[in-house]
Write a structure and sequence with these properties.
elongated; 24% strand; alpha+beta; 188 residues; single chain; 5-stranded antiparallel sheet
């Protein structure tokens, strides 16, 4: 039973860390090499795509649609592809409604050789055709720029603080319950 509790706790921790890692913003330093709009079949990985026509209340049952992509290259020459979709009012709450403007900004920078920081959320999986969603583009001085992930640091501190508070409440509740049971036993 003890090992089962340990396994369940580790599994819960892995799930929480994965949810935070997927949903919190990250930034990559890249050069934009091109943009495109591709007719894409969403298929079985629709969990990782933004809702079609976010915020318009239309039918979301359509399984293919046009998706904007931003093609980039890292300083070592390896490619990195981002999708560019509005999140609207859905999860995660980035309230992104400017995918058209972001695409125009990326097209303007395509092939210029300028280095940019692409803020995004999500993961890239070539096996499942999952792409991170770009939320903003900011110019930087070069590929060696180091950016401090303040949002991730604050989220980690808040998560740790919440875990400590829950743990302390659990310990106090357990002690209070044991004390209460001892009092009841002593009365009888």
């Amino acid at each position: 039973m003890r090992y089962l509790k340990i396994v369940l706790r580790v599994l819960a921790l892995i799930i929480i860390v994965a949810l935070f890692d997927y949903n919190l913003p990250s930034r990559d330093i890249v050069q934009i090499v091109g943009t495109e709009v591709v007719r894409t079949d969403i298929g079985s990985n629709s969990l990782f795509w933004a809702q079609q026509d976010s915020g318009t209340g239309t039918d979301l049952s359509q399984q293919n649609r046009d998706v904007r992509f931003i093609n980039t290259a890292r300083d070592d020459g390896s490619p990195r592809v981002y999708r560019n979709e509005d999140t609207g009012w859905g999860w995660p709450f980035y309230l992104k409604f400017n995918s058209g403007n972001l695409q125009a900004e990326a097209q303007q920078l395509a092939g210029s050789g300028d280095w940019v920081a692409v803020k995004h959320y999500g993961w890239r999986s070539t096996l499942f055709s999952i792409y991170p969603n770009a939320t903003s583009i900011s110019p930087v001085t070069g590929p060696s720029v180091s950016l401090i992930p303040w949002v991730r640091i604050v989220a980690a501190i808040l998560l740790l603080l919440a875990a400590v508070i829950i743990w302390r409440l659990w310990v106090r509740t357990k002690a209070w319950t044991a004390d209460r049971m001892d009092r009841l036993k002593s009365k009888f």
